[in-house]
Model the fold of this input.
Amino acid sequence: MAKSYHDLDIYKISLELFLRVHKFSLRLPKYGLYELGSQLRRSADSINSNIVEGYGRKRYKNDFLKFLTYSQASNYETLVHLEKIKALYPDFEKEVHEIQIQYDQLGARINKFTIYVLNSWK
Done:
């Protein structure tokens, strides 16, 4: 069992992706930076923050599961924002695609961890 949320792979990956997406979003054109870019930054941050908040409530399994569900939902939201950016700004298509693959992989890990908590968490 993890001694801290820092030990969770989903935490480490989501933080690394948040930092990458944050820097990436700041390169969007001004009209995208403050609208879609802001939404992207917030949803990416929410993935990580909900993992941490859920872990902080780990003694209450249902609360932990609820925040992992929020984290998964924010992961989906991040993917949608990336899809919009890819469609609106073709110059970023390759980079966005690479980031989307990483968020798909993160989503699978969050799902796997959620199932673990559901079935094996005491």
